[in-house]
Design a protein that fits this description.
TIM Barrel; two-stranded antiparallel ribbon; 11 helices; binds S-adenosylmethionine; binds iron/sulfur cluster; MoaA_NifB_PqqE_Fe-S-bd_CS; GTP 3',8'-cyclase activity
Length: about 375
């Protein structure tokens, strides 16, 4: 069986000789050369989206993947089964594009939840979503086996929401947050990206909004993954800028919780003037990268494994599937792709090049 690898330096021969031995029963763990083990799988269910966030895609959208090139439900379910029951994956996050646009989402969640990890329990299942339309589906998705959601929200000002997403859907997102809490998709986490000159003024209002609703806000540093003109290292709003802005209204102290492989550094916050307190996460993906603790592997909607958000090489599992490859062929290709994961994302390297795929097609 030929293993099609899009990175010419990775060959099937290297795979067979370099990789750690398979476990008893022929199962494998997704090790890389630096000792990290991937336990968290991010699956992009579609590259399409119903919003047009300025930092993610252009107003006219992108050239979407052709339907026949994307994984069908059977193919996704087969790859999920292999990942969870044979490759040591313990947590799955469905993302996109917008995962709610996949009609079979509940069914995919249901069949995923029926699988058993190497700890002999079902996988934890999370979803990252823009929340549009989620209010009507939160309860049924929870029933299907979804454990929790991250909802993206960069401002609570309706006009700025429209400006940032190019759509007027703020009320859908707020309803989605409330419905998710009610459905027990907890802890509900809110992802906010702050951009210079666009929504810096939203840092404190977003924090107040989330603390009032008892959902956990996480600020994410903007990464060079969207339209090229949307990111500039010299003006990027860093974790330090966010902490400074929060400090004007809150007293902050680092939370005692251990971070492990979680990307967010947690802060305990107490409002200076109001009876509001809780935790806020800050994900300093660019300024203080957490690559050394990364335990992620990613699967794109067209079935390519990516060992990092920022990699420029991919391994197509879809091609192996459609070539009649066995589970072992797929496992070897997946393990090989992960083995070659780099130690870090390299954004600060002067030779850094943005990946060819935009964030929405990678699965954030
Ligand atoms: N459509 C869903 C959503 O927006 O939640 C899921 C896909 S989206 C690509 C996943 C996450 O990536 C969102 O929280 C979004 O804010 C974040 N994101 C998109 N582009 C980004 C960028 N250039 N830098 C940092 N985060 C980004
Ligand atoms: Fe769509 Fe999410 Fe990208 Fe916004 S961040 S355009 S919601 S994929």
């Amino acid at each position: 069986m030929r293993i099609p690898l899009s990175d010419p330096v990775v060959s099937a021969t290297a795979a067979a000789t370099d990789l750690p031995r398979a476990l008893p029963h022929g199962n494998r763990l997704l090790y890389d050369r630096f000792g990290r083990v991937a336990r968290d799988l991010r699956v992009s269910l579609t590259d399409r989206c119903n919003l047009r966030c300025t930092y993610c895609m252009p107003e006219e959208g992108l050239t979407w993947l052709a339907k026949e090139s994307t994984l069908n439900d059977d193919e996704i379910q087969r790859l999920l089964r292999i990942a969870i029951t044979r490759l040591g994956i313990r947590q799955v996050r469905f993302t996109g594009g917008e995962p709610l646009l996949r009609k079979s989402l509940a069914q995919i969640i249901r069949t995923t939840k029926e699988l058993m990890t190497d700890e002999n329990v079902p996988p934890r299942i999370a979803m990252t979503t823009n929340g549009v339309g989620l209010a009507n589906h939160a309860a049924s998705l929870a029933k299907a086996g979804l454990d929790r959601v991250n909802i993206s929200l960069d401002t609570i000002d309706p006009q700025r929401y429209h400006q940032l997403t190019r759509r007027d859907r703020l009320h859908h997102v707020i309803d989605a947050i409330d419905a998710s809490v009610q459905a027990g998709l907890t802890p509900v986490k809110i992802n906010a990206v702050i951009m210079p000159g666009l929504n810096e003024q939203d840092i404190v209002p977003l924090a107040e909004f989330c603390l009032q609703r008892e959902v956990q806000l996480r600020f994410i540093e903007q990464m060079p993954l969207g339209p090229h003109e949307a990111w500039d290292r010299s003006t990027m709003i860093s974790a330090r800028d966010i902490i400074q802005r929060l400090s004007e209204s809150f007293v902050l102290s680092p939370a005692v919780e251990k971070r492990g492989s979680a990307p967010a550094a947690l802060w305990d916050v107490h409002h200076r003037d109001r009876d509001l307190a809780g935790k806020i996460g800050i994900i300093a993906s660019v300024s203080q990268s957490f690559c050394a603790d990364c335990d992620r592997t990613r699967l794109t909607a067209d079935g390519a494994v990516r060992n990092c958000l920022f990699t420029r090489s991919e391994t197509s599992l879809r091609d192996i599937l459609r070539d009649g490859g066995s589970d072992e062929d797929i496992m070897l290709a997946w393990a090989t792709a992960m083995w070659h994961k780099k130690p870090g994302h390299g954004i600060d390297d002067p030779h850094f090049l943005q990946p060819q795929r935009p964030m929405s097609a990678i699965g954030g």
